[in-house]
Structures are given as structure tokens and as C-alpha cells.
Write a structure and sequence with these properties.
135 residues; 4 helices; 23% helix; single chain; alpha/beta
């Protein structure tokens, strides 16, 4: 069965630094679709983050590229398999040079935290109790 994929394209200031950041979080880089202008980060079988240097990013849009340290263009949210995995990923992000932000969101059945990557893109990480999801 076909599984639809998502390719999240993000403008970054330093492709090499961003590549290092995301590999320190435990993600792999697909070299087939990576160059010195972009890094193809494999988050899962169906989620890919394309980290594009700003010059390369501008090849795909006529719009102004926002300064993501000052403006929010998107909130990216990843699921995690447990509360501990939420904490683990956010802590790895902070150790790799990102910034843990916002308060912990603990609703009992749902637990989340967030971080900003090196370029200020906001990533949320959320665990939901499978029993609550099933209804």
C-alpha cells in the first residue's frame, strides 16, 4: 500500500552545522539527495527534512525568507513512543546547540516539550497514551 510522504524544506544558515545537529539527534542523512547546498535528513520512512542553504532555498520560492529566530513560519511536531523519548530528543537537541523552549505540556494522556534548532525552527515532540488515541 502506498504511504504518502512529507518533505519539509527549511532554510538554514549553515548546512554543515545543521547536518551535524540533526545527526547528533540520531537521524541519518541520505547522501543521494544531499550536497554542499542541502542535507536530506531522514526522520522516518515517511518524513524527510530537506535543510537547504538560503541561496538554494530561494531557488524554490519568490517569497522573502523569514528570519526564523524572530518569526515563526511553521511549528513542526514529531510523535514519540514514550514520555522518556520526548525528554531524550529535546535534551539531545539542547546538548547539540539547540534551545529547549516553552514549558512542559503534561495533560496526563499527552506529554510534550519543544526545542528550536540552530536556525530557530520550532520542533515539538509529543507522546500520547495509545489508549487515549483509540478512544
Amino acid at each position: 500500500m502506498y504511504q504518502q510522504m512529507i518533505f519539509v524544506n527549511l532554510a538554514v544558515n549553515d548546512v554543515d552545522a545543521s547536518r551535524k545537529f540533526f545527526t547528533e539527534l540520531g537521524y541519518s542523512i541520505n547522501p543521494q539527495f544531499s550536497t554542499d547546498e542541502c542535507a536530506c535528513v531522514v526522520i522516518s520512512d515517511t518524513i524527510i527534512a530537506m535543510l537547504l542553504g538560503k541561496q538554494r532555498y530561494s531557488d524554490f520560492t519568490k517569497k522573502e525568507i523569514v528570519d526564523s529566530t524572530k518569526s515563526s513560519e511553521v511549528l513542526l511536531c514529531l510523535s514519540a513512543e514514550s514520555r522518556e523519548k520526548v525528554d531524550e530528543l529535546v535534551n539531545k537537541a539542547a546538548a547539540a546547540g539547540g534551545t529547549a523552549n516553552n514549558d512542559v505540556q503534561d495533560q496526563g494522556f499527552m506529554y510534550g516539550r519543544s526545542f528550536d534548532d540552530l536556525d530557530g525552527h520550532s520542533w515539538e515532540v509529543v507522546w500520547m497514551d495509545p489508549a487515549a488515541v483509540q478512544g
